[in-house]
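hey so u asked for the seq, here:
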Amino acid sequence: MRKTIIFLFVTGLFLLPLFSQSEKTLVIRVELNQDAHKKYSEYEKSYVNAAYRQFQQDLTKDPQIQIRTPETDNDLRSIQKESQIEASKGLASENAAYATDKGSRAALSIRVQMAKVGKDYQLSCEIREIEKMSMTQRNTQKASLEQVSSDVVVDALAYEVLLFLQEKSYIPRVSLDITNQLLHRDAANSEKNLKKYVESYAKQKREAEAELAALRTETKSKEDKLAKEARERALQLNIELAEKNRQIAEQNLRRQQEKNQEEANRQAELKKISKEQQEKFAQEFAEIDAARRAIQKESLGQLSLKKRIELIESARENVRQLEEQLNDILWQNRTGMTSKMQEELDKKENEPWRKADLSNGIPTSRARKFRDDEKAAIRKRYESQMDADEKKLRTFAEPGIADYRAQIQSNLEDMQKTLYVFRSVNEIDDFLRLQVDEYDGDRQSWEVHSDFVLPIEKTDTSAIVLPPVPITYLMMVGSQPDMDSAEGYKKYQDDVDRADFYFRTKVPYLYSELSVKVTYDSSASVYKILPQDYAIYRTQDNSKPIARYDAKKLAAVQKKYEADLKEQQEAEEDERRSALREIKWDMFWANQRARRGVYLDLGYSGQSSYHGFVGDLTFLWGGKHFFGGFDATLIGISDSCFNSTLYKSITYLSIEGMLGWSIKFGVLRPYIAGGIGIFDRTQKAKSSKVSNESKTGFTFLGEAGIDIVLGRFVIGGVYKLRHYTDVGNMDNYSVSIGYNW
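ran it, structure tokens below
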């Protein structure tokens, strides 16, 4: 059990899992030169670590390549050493056999290192064949420290490695899309290529998902199970990487389509001007483009915020995985040892008593105490072993956890004291973009907007609110327009067209610059981006900004933005509530249904001097609110109710025509109605000495009630006031049941 626990733990310590080698997979062991790494300052290590991480990501752009880290091999050797010790005690280890299995071995080893050469640094890698342990290739890239981790330098080094692997037939031909990406060719950004990349990454994801689904079958041997799990983890990483690359390619495709449209508009505008002007514009564009490249090169002078956060989050994820694995393995170890301890305790408890232990067939108190002491010794032995195992595992894992925590703290400190600068000329990290609105003739200005979108997880950019900046005709031309003369106005028109033409070029005439600082909110696990300075520059002459906002001004802009946003949200909420009320009111009226159907009312009827039973049968027709129909009523009053010596009962039979109005609130439907009709009254005598009496007349009806509508069926209560022309008013209180039609 302990052997299995230790194996599971150490294999869980890797950031990148073990990969089983298949026919189409090349496993490469990538590591840093630790001897050289120890000599770096913490500042230098940040750049080396970023370059090392980027290098691994570049190699895995080829789906046939899987990466193993040095920790993998070190832990496998630890397992082998453990298995050798246990083998000497007569214990076998299937796990150790798997650890040495050739199917999980890397074919090549790549060692990455950085060395200082004069004022610059040299990023290099050595490629060795593991079976022969001989160096087959050495590649180098030279740059300043700040540029060592840049995409351009690292990508170039990775591309050289992929070419070597292709030449030595380790992998097939390096695809065109990978070549274009790693060499940062303009062709890589063509709309056609970007569409192809999107489909290529989508295809890689589908193929990995299909293979992953096929792998999820039962396996018999432990060795096959471990190999399958390793491959599943590799495929899952491939799926995540392919999806991430697909999203990036889709985003780049959208941007390229926008640029292509802008370029098409520019070419259309270019055709409208003279050849001499075209040549002048071409010359100026070349100058602007040269200035842009110089500014872009300056932007590479620091470790990017994106890479800094990636380093921190990578170390944080390593800590989480290590602690999670450690706790899981400790629990498994304790559970397994507890189970074995209980087996031994049960065995000891069920052990037959010897003759010396019994008295009249019952264990003596001394014998019982002796056995309890033996069981206590068993518990103590297992608990000591569990404590020792836990200490051993913690001792094994905690240095790695502490190292990652130190990396996190160091990178957080560097990040929080660094001023990060974003410029809209930087196409590699195109987080800040500048757009110019159409010319406003009334205000004689263009409005410039900057959009800052930081696609980095766990970042909060809510404090970044960049104001629109007006660029006036005066700022662009250097003088006020002459609007009074035809010649002056014609010049004004030409100047506006010329200036506007510059804004629509693919080479930015203006660029925006945003400086930010970053703080880490540990309670929310969020990196808060705080603006420090925002400015608009001319690309050709960036010595002085056209417009500038410091942190104080930006805070005022944000405050106004939040106030406007709150006001807008409140207005939208009021509008939403109003619309909702209208919808509810429309639904209320749409769901109206008048009181129509057949109803039977049964209840009580009477006056102050007599009362009796009443029954009404009503037939009604109607629309949404108004209804009409007729009502047949029978009222019976016995002599016990009116204390007569002559008559034993009185019966009223009436028929009324009626009209009414109802309104429905959900299942409740209150209503009122009125009607007029005729009645027949019959009084039955108690003896033959008195004649029965019959009389007819008119009846007037008024009623009010409420229904509970349950689909087609109705139940409710109703009060009816009837006026008979012979006796006056009579009250009716009834329970109503009915069926709607």
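The first strand starts at residue 26 and ends at 32. The longest helix spans residues 365-417.
lmk if thats what u needed
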